[in-house]
Amino acid sequence: MAADERIQLQLIRLPVSGAAIPTFRLAETRCPYFHDRWSGSRVVVAHIPSSEQYQEMMDMGFRRSGDVFYRPECASCAACIPIRVPVAEFRASRSQRRAWRRNADVEVEFAAPHYSDELYELYERYQEAIHDGVMAATPGDFREMFFESPIDTLGLYLRLGGRVIGFGIVDVCPQALSSVYFFYDPDLRERRLGVFSALAEIEQCRRLERPYWYIGFFVEGCAKMEYKREFRPSELLDAGGIWRRNGE
Q1: Buried b vs exposed e over 7-42: b needs ≥16 C-beta within 10 Å?
Q2: Which of 67, 149, 155, 193 has its CA 20 to 30 A from that of 172?
Q3: Phi first, then psi: what are they for 225, rounded to 5°?
Q4: 71 CB contacts (<8 Å, ≥6 apart)?
């Protein structure tokens, strides 16, 4: 094994279970949030964590994308900060309550996620309209990203008149629901389905008695991530692994 490979490989020890998780640091690539920066990630290798272990890993800054568990680890930047919402303290804002009322005619269902051509076509339309096709995927890639989760996962289906107008993936952990990804019909932007789906996930946390709703990373200075400020109160994971109230 080359010296640089030995430096990149690392075992992380989970604080509660004591499990040792093998990880590897990937080479840096262009940052998806800031085009003038480079980003790196530490990913889990040769191990599929349980939902209980993933809960511990989220509290160490890890997230899931498809079957990859990763943590941002950049040489010159620490802008990606894990964020979560304490469900018992959350109160919807006036604007969020309007979005909820606006979608009173939408059917909300949490169920096991299953691939369909309808969902794939919705995803492709969303990517083209909202993200200029940057995250376009083949049907096979789409299946892997959203429907081959190695841990407990729910699909959030939003339907209007029997047609799916929004779909999200939510991981189920002992102390939290973790929002993975959500996409919607771009012709219905005025409904603010992203806000509506977030409120639906928070309500599902309450039904399942999960005290926290995890929403990935807050990235200071990135316009695409500013919406996460609107779910209050929230907590940010500091460099020492302690969750602290946002704004303290």
Answers
A1: eeeeebebeeeebebebeeeeeeebebeeeeebbbb
A2: 193
A3: -100, 0
A4: 41, 42, 43, 60, 61, 62, 63
Tokens of 146: 């959203």
Return the SS3 of 145.
helix
> What is the C-alpha end-to-end distance of the chain, expressed in Å?
45
Which neighbouring-strand residues pair with 29? 39
Residue 24, phi-psi category: left (phi > 0), alpha (psi -120 to 50), beta (remainder): beta
The 3-class secondary structure across 54-113, one letter per residue, is: HHHHHCCCCEEECCEEEEECCCCCCCEEEEEEEHHHCCCCHHHHHHHHHCCCCEEEEECC
What gap in Å lies between CA 33 and CA 26, rounded to an integer? Answer: 17
Which residues, at least 6 apart from 223, have a Cβ–Cβ distance to it below 8 Å? none
Task: Tell whether pTM > 0.90.
Answer: yes
> For 5-17, what is each residue's pLDDT tens digit?
444 789 999 999 9
β-bridge partners, 63: 70
CA–chain centroid gap for 43, Å, is 16
Summarize pLDDT for 114-132 with one digit per residue, the tens. 999 999 999 999 999 998 8
Q: Please, are residues 212 and 83 in contact by the beta-carbon 8 Å criterion?
A: no
- With CA atoms as reference, report the closest residue to 194 among 213, 166, 169: 166
For residue 96, give the 3-state DSSP assignment: helix
